[in-house]
Hints:
The complex is a heterodimer of chains A (244) and B (202).
Chain A: E1 8-21, E2 24-37, E3 41-45, H1 52-59, E4 67-72, E5 75-76, H2 82-91, E6 93-96, H3 108-118, H4 123-136, H5 152-163, E7 170-174, H6 182-199, E8 202-207, H7 211-215, E9 218-223, E10 226-232, H8 233-243
Parallel strand pairs in A: 3-8, 3-9, 6-7, 7-8
Antiparallel strand pairs in A: 1-2, 1-4, 4-5, 9-10
Helix pairs in contact in A: 3-4, 3-5, 4-5, 5-6
Chain B: H1 2-10, H2 12-45, H3 48-56, H4 70-97, H5 99-107, H6 112-150, H7 153-156, H8 160-191, H9 194-199
Helix pairs in contact in B: 1-2, 1-6, 2-4, 2-6, 2-8, 4-8, 6-8
Amino acid sequence: MDREIVHNVVRLSEVTKVFKMGGLQVEALKGIDFAIKAGEYLSIMGPSGSGKSTLFNMIGALDKPTTGRVFIDEVDVAQLDAYELAWLRCRKIGYIFQTFNLIQVMTAIENVTLPMIFAGMSRDEYLEKGMELLRLVGLAERYHHKPSELSGGQQQRVAVARALANDPAIILADEPTGNLDLTTGEEIISLLKQLSTERKVTIISATHDIKMLNVSDRVVWIRDGRIDRVEERAKLKISVGEVV
Amino acid sequence: MKISFNSIKVRFFRSLITTLTLTLAIAFVAYIRSGYELLNAIWTHADLSLQERILAGGYEAVDGRFGTSPKDTWLAILSLIVCVVGIVNAQLMAVTERFREIGTFKCLGALNSFVVRIFLVEAFYQGLLGGLSGSVVGIVVSTVSIAWKVGWPAFRWWPFTGMLLTLGWGLFMAASLSLLGVIYPALVAARMQPAVALRTEQ
């Protein structure tokens, strides 16, 4: 087989995170060592309060670890200055949130084109690409609607289109189906899966949605700020089958 | 910028309150200033009986000119300080309200300077609006109150250029006060870690 050498798109090394809450110190992450390969569809599972979202923020360079290192494309995030961090968030990573986090005062197309404006594209370029992305998620005819005029599933699809704006290497999804009903959740999941297979985007999602497991290449279980176990998909099907 | 304009439009009521603070302060200062402009303009044309009427109205001339007394100056400065404090307060609230939006901007690759710029542009718009309305209110009130005391001459020798100057001066003051008031809140907003900003509930 002449497969190209798979490199680690994200690597975590002994990452810990301590939050100070009043006088109390809460250890959200207690030493995570982990690597994510390019093109992988990875799910991070775990009960709420297990440190899932904190880990998500670490991977997305949205927060700094207390100790340890986070590498994105083998670049230590801690070494980057504000300008480079912004560049990283803009070009390398696309974010999808449980609460969609669209800008309420902007229309769908404006939301999608925003990252491209930050990236410095010209107006014609970003409008064309924005429409193309909205077509991809099936919302081209609603480009002029504000988030408040769209359903939850549609808002999340706009968010997916926005995450893809600068062709990121990684898409980070924090409970993307958490605020959606069953069918719209499935739509989003299949959309993500399609992106992962067609565009070879690395998809990392924090979730406790069982539907996510079926499409994941690997599942990481987090418990009490530590990695409990990592499962490959082949193995997973059997265990899920046994439970059901 | 279009983004700022939109967010003012949407949060119309909130920004109206901020603008109102400015309007009131500028109205007061413009009232004092335009009042003296008007008196000076009338005085040069006034005959003795009219001059007496003006003096009877409670206005004091020094060497045949009307000007701001130290008391007026202090009142004006005080009102402007109160105004700036009010703006800082209102803008801090506005920033808190928009933590999530700011966090999203930063996730999408916005630089700190972009966040600051959004708030500055918004404040500038509000300043212009507040300055305009404040100056107009101040000029109208001073004209009416002087006309009440001295009658028709107040309109006959209404100093158009002087009033225009007052208006321009009011706009400039309001814009700079508004910018002054928003600098601290904008810096607070820009310096936040995106994760912290996104964690806030709304």
